[in-house]
Structure prediction request, 541 residues.
Amino acid sequence: MSLSLFPTSSLRAIMNWNMLKTTAYIHFLKAGGLSTVQDQGRFGFAEYGVPYSGAMDQFSLMQGNVLLRNQKEAAALEIGISGPSMVFEMPTRIVFTGALAEIFHNGKPIQLGQIVNIACDDEIKIGKFFRGQWLYMALEGGLETPIFMESRSWYPGISSQSRLKKGDSICYLSEEKYHSDHFSHPKLDGSWFKGKEIEVYKGPEWKDLTLEQQSLLMNSEFKISPVSNRMGIQLEGNVSNQLKEILTSPVYPGTVQLTPSGKLIVLMRDAQVTGGYPRVFQLSDQAINIISQKNFGEKVKFSII
Amino acid sequence: MEKRFFQIQPNVLEINWPEEISDEILQDQLRYKNYLEQHHGDCVLEIRIGFNSLSVLFDQDIKKEQWSIIWNELENLKTDIQHFEPKVFKIPVCYQGEYGVDMENLAKSKKLSVSELVELHSSKKYRLFFYGFLPGFMYLGGLDPKLHSPRKSTPDLMIPKGSVAIGGRQTGIYSMDSPGGWHVVGRTPLTLFDPQKPIPTIAKQGDFIQFYQIDQDEFKSISNQLLAGNYELEYA
Prediction:
């Protein structure tokens, strides 16, 4: 439907006044490699052992919600590894942020940051990922999946769903509103997660390392290992480690652990709340977002703030 | 007892006690947590606890001067006030058959009979130090040294929810299905973590857990009572 055919402004005002939200569903024809619903996370339940969860890349989640003027608590679809395809029942608006990937709206390519007007039965299909690990699809008003412990973020054992499957449907509220077509949109090119540098604070057990280990940790480059998921990112390379395990202590997303075999693990959003390996670094908030988008085999270097 | 603090992030501070597992540290932690929640609840978002550590997440970056005031208050808290009367929760465990898949091997390696092992495991009260590893997973102290056993070198891919297991110097209950490297000696029909409840767990930090033996028929009957919603958890 062409918006220029839309009637006079007086009629438009009536339509706004009469704004109705209708429950609608996104139907998934293909689930993709690792698609979940995520929001800012589940806070305040660590005393029961409950992880934060939430979007791996909180920066891109926020960008999507800002572009759609959503509340910051709005939930989005997080897409990893490979892309799903989906059909929308009713009109809404969506925007993609995060990883660079092929995205098609009814077969036509769309860009990151471009607000897309969705009509009834429109199809969105995600193809190849070019760079980055996590793509976010924010939707006007946010996804309306059930809330568990104050968050919509999916996590096994807490939310009723933990991973999107073929044939699943996700609820949203469709709102018939007048929208002009957006001709300009921010150029999101993923350059913000391109750099090697990962900003860190010294961890509680940093002081227990030898000078040699400290200089190795500060001056070496570490490769992102494929043994990585929403719980943690393992880094390749070896830091000989004679430190003994510590008594189980608090850990957070962004805590870098040094394992007995000399491997580094960067804990991510789904990480458990306590751990027993020495904690050598703590990533800054933005560094967690950056490292979440690093592809397997990419190199990173720690830089102490 | 000597305490130190460490700034992990501009808005996260951690307090450390000497490297040991003790009730004295636990009492300190409970007093600190209670005080911070009551007197600084407006700026403290979350407190995480380990055996000898307690970390505090603030709602914004915390300045040295602000922290030194709080630290001073904590260090001068009276030690004689007991805020907390610990409860003892009685957890039914079936140590038989498929529920205790590793029982026979573990008993053999410990040169104990199965009934001796059950007796050693269920005669003690275990202190709940904190939750971690999985939602609702209790870190329990007090396992009889005769039952200490190294974790499996290759973890099992799936340990069912409710499994009662021994690993290292600890015993615990898998609060949900999970991979794990501990030796499974039994299973409880109880649900120890329920995300639908306002307080999703049964016991609080500092409480005690005690296991008691049930047979397979009792396991089934308790499971049915739980489904019907008329099971009453025993505690003292």
Observations:
- Chain B has a mean pLDDT of 93.
- The longest strand of chain B covers residues 88-94.
